[in-house]
Fold this sequence. Notes:
This protein is an all-alpha fold. The chain contains 26 helices and no strands.
Amino acid sequence: MNWKRYSIILCLLLLTLPLIHAQNEDWGGLKTKMTERQLLNMADAALVIGNRPDSALIYNIMLITKLQHKKRLTTEEKRYIAIGYNRSGFIYMFYLFDYASAMECLIKANQYCEDEKLRISINQNMGHLYSLYAVCFPSANNVEAARHYYRKAFNKALQMKDWTNMVSSFINFWNFGLEKENINAFRKQTELFEQTHITKPTPHQQYARMMLKVVRALQKKRYAEATAILKKQMKYGRNSIDDRLRCASCWHIASIYKMAGQPDSALAYSLKLEQMGRTLKLKDVETDADKLLCALFNEKGKKESADRYQLAYYRNRDSLLIANNLNSVKNNHLLSNVRSLANEVSNLKQKRRLQNLLALLSAGIVLITIAFLIILFRKNRRLKNQNITLYQRMQLQIAGGKPKYSKSNLDEEGKSMLRQKIEKVMKESEEIYNEDFSIEQLAKLCHAGKKDISQVINEKFGQSFILLLSEYRVKEACRRMNDITNSQRFTLESIGHSVGFKARESFSRAFKRVTGLSPSDYQKIAKTHTKA
């Protein structure tokens, strides 16, 4: 709930509360005239003595808004804000049944809290919220989450000798009932509570000691003794907190009678619990009663009554879910945990931000440099091959001016005819793919002399016999690799051998010189184009 929403609620309630309660309380100016401690005392009085949770909520909101607008808060001011949010969460949870707002308040309380003692109370309220969540979504995980917060609050309170919160935590253990499983879940804490000497009287200490006696009686299966203790407690109480304890005692009595195999007594107290929930307008108490009554009527074989209470249970549970957006509670808590972790590492992130930025820039520079070097290496290799080819051609041109072929009897027409014969052999003869194919064999196939063949290749093709032969062999290798179906059965080395190359290295060099690609790259591209 943001500040603007608080302000709207505050204005509306300030206008309506004097009419609703018919009191002459001076609501105007409370924000500025009352101290933080006075506001907390007024909130406590409104809730515990006056049974007016709406007024208590207003006092807590006043406390929060009085301090929250400050740019810089002292440790004590943060503590007061955390208390205000924590108590607001308690009121939203148990009196207004707005669980989403309760979770939001508890999250903010945890954010402002720097006091370990106050965090005990916040953990207790988180346990309450998860226990309510478990009512609507029964699961082992939800129940254990609530137990976790209760144990955490109890252990810390015991460590700090915070007797009030320790007593409160012990009472909260039994929110999930007095069955054997729950008693075993808090066995260690129960023993610690029994052994602890409380040096200062605390609220509800008597009730906690009574619950300890009930637990010990149940461990010995003394059901009558346990119910007698709880019935005695139900006669006392003068405020809203005691009302809830009486409801809890009534629920425990019904559950114990059910465990003891006394369905009629269990049914009587379950109906009484339902009536208490309606009278006190406690929706969660009604939900617990409906669940008990459904189970008891099923045991008695009264299906119609069981179905009626089961429907009431689902209706009450769904009203909690829909009206109060309980389904968002768990997600809000998860988001809170994420924010908490983010806050814990924020300082470290700030210190390391420059270092990370430099590391990122360095990594980027290294990657760019590597990429540049790879590109440069490839271009340099292509340029080197091109330069070798140009050099060879230049040597041939230079040789053309020397008397190497000065004694040749070939005229231009003869050279052209011989070139055609060479091209025909290179394109049509399979003999050129033999590893030992030589210029002598080419001359024989062309019915010409070796020197004439060499002269025409140098002058008309602009390259040596070896380079010309490699070029045609590479072209044939490309044709074979284009036949994906058949070429996949052979390695690149075997394809090179099949067109006359003795070694894979010589095949790769010739292939790269002719096509500009490596054999493997060419094959990958050929596969892609074939699939397309």
